[in-house]
Amino acid sequence: MDSAAADGPHPGPGPAANPLGHGPVLLLTGARLVDGRVVDVRISGDRIQAVGTVGSLGPLPALPGAPTVTTGARIDLRGYLLLPAPAEAHGHYDSAFSAALPAPPPDTPADLTRRVTEAALTSLGYGATAQRTHVRIGDVHGLGRLEAVLTARQALRGLAELQAVAMPRLLTGRAGADGRAQLREALKLGATAAGGCPELDPDPSGYVHLLLEAAREADCPVDLHTTAVDAAQLARLAGVLAPLRPRVTLGPCGALARGASTVLATSGVRVVWLPQNGGCTGLEGRPTGPRPGLVRELTTARVPLAAGSGALRDQSNPVGRADPLESAYLLAATGELDPEAAYDAVANQARAALGLPPVRVDAGFPAELLAVRGDSLAGALAGGHSRLVVHSGRVVSRTSAVREFADTVALALPRQSGGADC
């Protein structure tokens, strides 16, 4: 067999040769940025300390009294594109992998925690250092699913930031009494945001009023599901939510009524779009697929737009992937957005939807980074499989792809050590 070469970033020599166990300082060398520059990036703690031309940042700092012992690692990123880390803005980890499980899937605390943790780590391996999952509460679920997510969140500290959105089915009337109580308890337990689908309640406007009241009491954001098929109802919901803007997110809006983008633009809410199939388990019925031209309509109206996966092999999408670059690829491949805007939708726009600060590969910004094999953003979206993920200044995941061919190819084709990606 003729191996095309192992494709992965290479740590430099020294006591911290394993990049998954480096010290408080990290030096990334030879990385290409989206603007074409090739740079070295020094990270100290959870911040980018400096960005300079290759070789300009010098050796890593030494420990006091031991000038030959470095405190961190040097990782060679030649052939890699260095980007702000993406975020998963809309997941359903409590139902992840359920399409491959017996029906109904097991709901024991151990099973739920394992499934949520596996989903979060899967997303992290693709590059999402911050993630938000919507969790069903109330009815037969009680708070068990949320408790599993919170347990997983604690276990994942230092690897990824996991947020939970509490989703009661009903809130209004006598039938919604349990949902109202469970929502307030969920926010006390540590749910990050209040959510749900108003369209499943007999009184959608009443649902939003009650949700808003609970969110204001807990001082937390709101993240709602809606198809947005009814422009008049969307306008009413936006009006009710106005006191909490800009801490309001709506998604996936896959059936957004034509012309309703102006309602969203004036309401100050953010939209999280799900380009894989336009739907998720938070909505009833089978997803009908994204409406052509919808993303362009939203961006033309200047609606803040993020993108998420929505599903990881659950009943709404049995082949759903938790890869932010897949979502960006779909946005770019349809021609709705150029590659830069498509990636921004899964990176800084997604971070904004999660209430997180922006990231740039520049000094002073959070060290939340993704290195992906490729010589350009378009190349990375087209098939960058090898990835290195940095969260809070620490390498937390590394994926190295190896491609092999049966026979030696006589033509002088580029190998993976160059700019070609695998």
Attribute tags:
single chain; 422 residues; 5-stranded mixed β-sheet; 11 helices; 26% strand; disordered C terminus
Q: Can you put this structure into words, describing what you see?
A:
The protein has 422 residues and is an alpha/beta fold. The protein contains eleven helices and 21 strands. The chain has helices at residues 109-126, 144-155, 177-189, 204-218, 231-241, 261-267, 294-300, 324-333, 339-346, 348-353, 377-383; strands at residues 2-7, 10-11, 25-32, 38-44, 47-53, 62-63, 66-70, 72-76, 80-84, 87-91, 130-137, 161-168, 193-196, 222-226, 248-252, 270-273, 305-307, 369-373, 387-391, 394-399, 401-405. The strands form five sheets. An eight-stranded parallel beta sheet has the order 10-11-12-13-14-15-16-17. A five-stranded mixed beta sheet has the order 2-8-3-4-5, with no helix packed on it. Helix 3 links the parallel strand 12 (161-168) and strand 13 (193-196). The longest helix is centred in the first third of the chain and has 18 residues, at 109-126. Mean pLDDT is 88; it is low at 1-6, 13-18, 66-70 and 417-422.
